[in-house]
Design a protein that fits this description.
The complex is a heterodimer of chains A (112) and B (114). Chain A is mainly β. Chain A has strands at residues 3-7, 10-14, 19-26, 32-38, 44-50, 56-58, 64-68, 73-78, 87-94, 100-102, 106-111. Helices cover 0% and strands 51% of the residues of chain B. Classes of the chains: A mainly beta (112), B mainly beta (114).
Chain lengths: 112, 114
């Protein structure tokens, strides 16, 4: 069965530092992979998605993610963190049965 | 477009009561789903639907029923509420097939069962 594992339930970085949020997936078929962001007391919105086109995917707000099949990873990065990036981030995978399964989330904090 | 709407925003139930969480979308999306969000557990898929008249179970379906009589609506029913169902519930919709499945989420329903 398809699944995703997010390493680190909480990540804290300084403003201006690199953001790296880790996601590993398990899938028996070429996966569709997603990153979503959730700001406090809001629903989720899509940051970016991988659908087997380019392996480096650019999203909104300066985020990008690289699909690495050999490592079964889809880590999310941003070169320079901004205070407004503080939120919870979720990685998700679409299964062959059309289920979309989410990871447990990573809360990103930004230090001034 | 209103996008995905959910009602109510907040609800308190007593153990054993029943209720229906409403979800509607006006984007003509085939795919709709319900998730529950609990601290430290991310979002867990309860039920999903790939089109009107078609539903299937997700990761945590027990205690919940769904039906999909129209493309627009996908209500979630709790037949006999239990404290373990205290959670925030999100409905989402998307186009299905091809390179899509980008989900649009509603604002959520915060449910407390006492």
């Amino acid at each position: 069965a398809q699944s995703v594992t997010q390493l680190g339930s909480h990540v804290s970085v300084s403003e201006g530092a690199l953001v790296l949020l880790r996601c590993n997936y398990s899938s028996s078929v070429p996966p569709y992979l997603f990153w979503y962001v959730q700001y406090p007391n809001q629903g989720l919105q899509l940051l970016l998605k991988y659908t087997s086109a380019a392996t480096l995917v650019k999203g909104i707000n300066g985020f990008e993610a690289e699909f690495k099949k050999s490592e079964t990873s889809f880590h999310l990065t941003k070169p320079s963190a901004h205070m407004s990036d503080a939120a919870e981030y979720f990685c998700a995978v679409k299964s062959s049965a059309s289920k979309i399964i989410f990871g447990s989330g990573t809360r990103l904090s930004i230090r001034p | 477009n209103a996008g995905v709407t959910q009602t109510p925003k907040f609800q308190v139930l007593k153990t054993g009561q029943s209720m229906t969480l409403q979800c509607a979308q006006d984007m003509n999306h085939e795919y709709m789903s319900w998730y529950r969000q609990d601290p430290g557990m991310g979002l867990r898929l309860i039920h999903y639907s790939v089109g009107a008249g078609i539903t299937d179970q997700g990761e945590v379906p027990n205690g919940y029923n769904v039906s999909r009589s129209t493309t627009e609506d996908f209500p979630l029913r709790l037949l006999s509420a239990a404290p373990s169902q205290t959670s925030v519930y999100f409905c989402a919709s998307s186009y299905s097939g091809g390179a899509s499945y980008e989900q649009y989420f509603g604002p959520g329903t915060r449910l407390t069962v006492t």
